[in-house]
Amino acid sequence: MSMNKFMHPRNIYRQKPDFKALVKQCPELTAVTTVDLNGKLKLDYKDKKALQLLTTCLLKRDFGLQIDLPPDKLVPTLPLRLNYILWLEDLEDALGWKSRPEVRGLDIGCGASCIYPLLGVVHSKHRWRMVGLELLEDSVMAARKNVEGNSLQEYIDVVQQKSGDGSILKDFMGEKERFDFCMCNPPFFDDHDGAVHENRTSQRKEPPNASTGSDKELRIEGGELRFLERIIDESLELKERITVYTSMIGHKKNFEEILRIMKRRSISNVTTTRFCQGNTTRWGIAWSFSSAALLANVPDRFEQESSNRKSVGKPLEGKILSLEDVENFDSAQTNLLSVLKSLDLQINPLKGETEHMWELVAQDNTWSHQRRKRREAKRKLSPGSENRNNQERELDGASNSDGTPSKKLKSEQNCCEPVLKAVLCLKSKEDGYYLGLSYLSGIAGKDALNQILQFVKNNICS
Fold first, then answer.
1. Its GO biological process terms (predicted)?
2. How far apart (Å, rounded) are the C-alpha atoms in residues 438 and 422?
3. Domains plus CATH for the chain?
4. What is the DSSP string of 164-225?
5. What span, in angstroms and rounded, lies between the C-alpha atoms of 311 and 313?
6. Do 65 and 59 contact (CB within 8 A), yes or no?
7. Strand locations in 69-127, DSSP E?
8. Rounded to an integer, what distance in angstroms lies between the CA atom of residue 414 and that of residue 274?
9. 136/253 Cα distance (integer angstroms)
């Protein structure tokens, strides 16, 4: 499914390029285009040379950038890179940086193309001053050549990182360096894994684009998850010397784990987004330790688009009570809300609706593995469990003496994207009371609606 409709609204590549017009402007594309039966020009995206030519032509036409892309290096996907830059501009706007004459940014791993610093400087109309960090010597040389070729040495500095297993940021930052933001597009793969990861479904099609980039650009010890965890740990030491830390994340499972790491590190000033383009989705995360950079002020455009829709889609619906189970509708509603509150969910009434509707927000999955939780509760009530319970509370700090989540845990839960956001609707029908659930967002996905509905059925009036 094409994700272009979810692309950033300011992204100029929401519409596919007109190859006929582009070939007139960049005649060299003629060698890698074909004409179909309808007379339309088409590009073979599985051809590495075609991708390279297309990228250089678009950069020249749309941004006035002349870039030399070495044949063995990663060809940047331009719509994706622009999505990241536009999100950084959204952060800039929400934090009140747009009025500044200069904003200083750091790109961790700028690559041979130096695409993010180049795009950032040009798109900001030369307000941004960028430093590109790069480990590979040949990529450093190519990046500097691209900066010099566009006469942007005044705005972009390419620095070679020290090799080895040292720090990612701390060695470079020294004692004096400060930045308004940093950005990162880490290598996706662990160097012990194959380049092709297992699909969640066997029906997934092969990638439509050619694979580009060297192993050293695509792989790193521990993959992107370990790389980002190192940056997070270093950020806990550097704190406000970088006002806002950001990164792209390539795999959803890693994105979900990064959110959990943020909770465990008690990093609460966090915002997230998605980068959608073509057939691909990536994730973005930003965090800060500065009281002057409240990331809660950054608008969630996906949430805005959901709230702007008149309908939230066809709900999952199931019978939860028979008419004889309760006296009236109010009693059914009271029973339902009691069950939901036992899960420590946020339940917000939706005003102005004709039916009884609520917004559900879950910061954690509290409805799964209930049998295991009941067994654990019984174990804790057994003789000799008092000392074990005290030790467990000291270790995890997750619960108060009455078993409710501690303030610390709740603040950690509130720091990141909710596990689930949904709309609930209670209806009365001829044979009983029905609960409808409509998915809005959240990393738990639509499957969570079935789980919550089943939990309600099992526990209401029990």
1. rRNA base methylation
2. 5
3. 4-13+71-189+210-299 (3.40.50.150), 316-376+407-459 (3.30.310.80)
4. SS--SSHHHHTTT--EEEEEE----EETTS-SSPPPSSTTPPPPSS---S-HHHHEETTHHH
5. 5
6. yes
7. 103-108
8. 19
9. 28
What is the DSSP annotation of 145-172? HHHHHTT-TTTEEEEEPPPSS--SSHHH
Does the annotation list 149 as a binding residue? no
DSSP letter (8 states) at residue 15? S
| 3-state SS assignment for residue 448 | helix
C-alpha closest to that of 360 among 461, 456, 267: 456
**Whole-model pTM?**
0.65
In a 13 Å sphere around the CA of 219, the CA atoms on its Cβ side amount to 12
**Residue 21 token pair:** 């017009």
Establish how many alpha carbons lie within 13 A of residue 307's alpha carbon, considering only the half-sphere containing its beta carbon: 9
CA neighbours closer than 13 Å in the CB half-sphere of residue 117? 33
185 is in an annotated binding site: yes
Helical segments of 311-444, H only: 329-341, 370-381, 385-396, 407-413
Beta-bridge mates of residue 184: 108
* Alpha-carbon distances, residue 17 vs 8, 24, 41 (angstroms): 16, 13, 11
CA 25 to mean position of chain CA atoms: 36
**Distance, CA of 178 to CA of 420 (rounded, Å):** 36
Give the β-pairing of 189-190 and 219-220.
parallel
Contacts (Cβ under 8 Å, ≥6 apart) of 124: 89, 103
Question: Exposure string (b/e) for 131-157, b if CB count within 10 Å is 16 or more?
Answer: bbbbbbeebbebbbbbbeebebeebbe
Q: Write out the two tokens for 278.
A: 């073509």
The secondary structure of residue 76, as a DSSP letter, is -
Q: Which string of DSSP letters, residue by residue, matches 289-312?
A: --TT--GGGS--HHHHHHHHSS--
Question: For each of the chain's 462 residues, which pLDDT tens digit applies?
Answer: 456 778 899 999 988 878 788 888 888 888 887 777 676 777 777 778 888 888 999 999 999 999 998 887 788 989 999 999 999 999 999 999 999 999 999 999 999 999 999 999 999 999 999 999 998 899 999 999 999 999 999 999 999 988 756 789 998 998 889 999 999 998 754 444 544 444 444 444 444 454 444 444 444 566 789 999 999 999 999 999 999 999 999 988 999 999 999 999 999 899 999 998 877 889 999 999 998 898 887 877 665 554 444 344 567 899 999 988 888 999 999 999 999 989 988 888 875 444 578 888 888 888 876 656 556 666 666 655 455 444 444 334 444 444 444 444 333 444 456 788 888 889 888 889 999 998 888 877 888 899 999 999 998 875
The reply to whether 96 sits in an annotated binding site is: no
